[in-house]
Task: structure prediction
Amino acid sequence: MTKRCPGCDQVKALDDFGRRTVAPDGRHPRCFACVTSYKVYWRQHRAEFAEKTSRRRMLVAQYKEVGMKLCSRCKEPRPIQAFLASRQHRDGLGKWCFSCRRVYWRGVSPRPRQDLRIVLSETEKAYIAGIVDGEGTVSIGFTSTHCARVYVANTNMKLIEWLQRRVGGRIKTVPRSHPNHKTVYYWRPSHRLALVLLGEIRPYLVIKDQQSELVVRFFRERDEARLQLGGKKFLFKENLLPQFASIVSDVRALNKRGVI
Ligand SMILES: [Zn+2]
Ligand SMILES: [Zn+2]
Result:
């Protein structure tokens, strides 16, 4: 029986390899000569390695004291706010700073971020506000995280399509089983789009102005709190904080009053 050693790249007899019961062939991957030479090398440079490690640890500790961390990609000290939360690392922070991540991910998927400016005339804003007031819902949704929700339900496809044309968002069609009931169309902008839209139409809202204000406030305060917590996007659970929970229940109460 022979085996190739990846260290010296030579084919040697199995007896030239040390025993290792957990390995499939019961032998160490590298030959005795390679293992020995590695041990000798390590012993000669042990002090050097130890010094290097302790120097790095001291540097990390020094930066940690002033709220900084060394980015492992650009090797620059960055404030801890510039790192994403990560449970895989002992310090709870990712390895790369935000600007390194941005550069990397731009290179991987060079997709321009969608421009979310909605261009509406004042008349259109007032008209959309009227539709949202009469036929719509403004609320805070929750799936894995919170999102701003604006719904408009109507049986007239023309109205729903106009909304999509002017603002964007998606249309959902819900057919009814009863022959006298018309098909209902739902229009729903995305979270970010909904927030931009609410900002535009809020002055014209009569019935849903309170909900809208709360929804906009919820996400403004949440994003501020996220930033203060160092952009720890994935560790931040806003529903556990009382001020956010109370906004969610306020919006719910307002919407309930409208239905009854
Ligand atoms: Zn070898
Ligand atoms: Zn970096």
